[in-house]
Design a protein that fits this description.
Blueprint: E1 6-12, H1 15-18, E2 25-30, H2 36-44, E3 62-67, E4 71-75, H3 86-100, E5 107-115, H4 122-133, E6 138-143, H5 153-164, E7 169-171, H6 180-188
Parallel strand pairs: 2-4, 2-5, 5-6, 6-7
Antiparallel strand pairs: 1-3, 3-4
The chain binds guanosine-5'-diphosphate (GDP).
């Protein structure tokens, strides 16, 4: 599927409000700095669409983007950011939890982005388990593969696969634009 149009619709601070939306939703989630904004910008071919971490404004909201006038790409706040106070972290988790595990019936897929160099963190694995428990369709995007040494690549991917279990792994580089078309096809297929 080719993305031909993408625009920012609205940022939500209340997950219940998102439940009023009726178009199919494809949610993107990951730890702060994993490259989620870069991925959304690369996928939609719009450089400034999702704000990268250096723009704190929209990052603690649930941001909806309208894609091809047909569905919503949902940019969830990054979790586990050390610079946010403990209270701030709780608020972010509540927002994410409220969205993913509330009564939203429009969520088609959840793309969990992990760092290919770091591998899945405790927070990532907790998130994955919660997604599995709630029966979500999950795609795991392994980002920043351009940073993995060629000689370590196979071993690293196998290690990640072992940690996440039987899920589709999509190795990508948001920055170097590797595997982006393949990821788009898997995520947005009908
Ligand atoms: P977010 O917090 O998840 O939205 O992450 P950002 O998109 O802001 O990216 C965080 C940092 O990782 C930035 O410095 C990006 O340039 C960098 N980054 C993102 N994707 C990649 C990638 O595929 N490869 C490399 N090497 N760096 C990346």
């Amino acid at each position: 599927m080719t993305i031909t149009a993408a625009k920012f619709v609205k940022g939500f601070v209340d997950p219940k409000e998102v439940e009023k939306e009726t178009l199919p939703q494809y949610a993107f989630i990951g730890r702060s700095n994993v490259g989620k904004s870069s991925l959304i910008n690369t996928l939609t071919k719009q450089k400034g669409l999702a704000k990268t971490s250096s723009f704190p404004g929209r990052t603690q909201q649930i941001n909806l983007f309208l894609i091809n006038n047909k569905f919503h790409l949902v940019d969830l706040p990054g979790y586990g950011f050390a610079r946010v106070s403990a209270g701030g972290r709780d608020t972010i988790f509540e927002l994410i939890r409220g969205y993913l595990f509330g009564n939203n019936t429009c969520i088609q897929k959840v793309v969990l982005i992990i760092d290919g160099v770091v591998g899945p963190t405790r927070d990532d694995l907790d998130m994955l388990e919660a997604l599995e428990h709630s029966g979500k369709n999950i795609v795991i995007a392994v980002n920043k593969i351009d940073k993995i040494k060629k000689s370590d690549y196979k071993k690293q991917l196998e290690k990640i696969q072992g940690l996440v279990g039987a899920h589709i792994l999509m190795p990508i580089s948001a920055e170097k634009k590797i595997g982006i078309g393949e990821l788009g096809n898997i995520v947005f297929e009908k």
